[in-house]
Amino acid sequence: MHAHRARFPEDSEPQGRLPSESAIPDDLAVALSAAVPLHIEELRDLDPEILASVAHTAAPVVGSHGDDLLFGGKHCAAAFNALARGLAAAALTAWGGVSFAGMHWCAEQGCSNPAAPHAALGPERRGDRRP
């Protein structure tokens, strides 16, 4: 599984990153495209409550040390791992996956678009009660 650059139905050909996506450097995008799928596979069999806890734990690390992640600093590795792990947890619990900086990850193999058809999550994987 790898990250897909998000393309929505109204898009024609990819035009590179959207202005909102330019905030992260290319090397960070490449690193996330490798790390998030690895975390997805590691976390795949966990209960939704545990995945929510993983994401909850990652958020303050990214929030406190995101500048180190973007510009370098002693907390860069911790912030990167928290971001990748948090995105993976969100991809496994959010219906339609998660998109970040023009990339998309999902529990469904090969999904490249949050608007794509997705199978309903079974009760064992669903954190909410959506059919």
Description of the molecule:
By secondary structure, the chain is mostly helical. The protein is 46% helix and 6% strand. The protein is built from three helices and three strands. It has helices at residues 26-43, 48-71, 76-93; strands spanning 4-5, 98-100, 103-105. It has a three-stranded antiparallel sheet with strand order 1-3-2, with helices on one face. Strand 2 (98-100) and strand 3 form a beta hairpin. Helix 1 crosses helix 3 (76-93) and helix 2 (48-71) runs antiparallel to helix 3. It is globular and about 40 Å long. The two termini are 25 Å apart. 27% of the residues are buried.
Averaged pLDDT: 79
Radius of gyration over C-alpha positions, nearest whole angstrom: 15 Å
How would you write the strand order of the largest sheet? Answer: 1-3-2
H/E element sequence: EHHHEE
Give keywords.
131 residues; mainly alpha; three-stranded antiparallel beta sheet
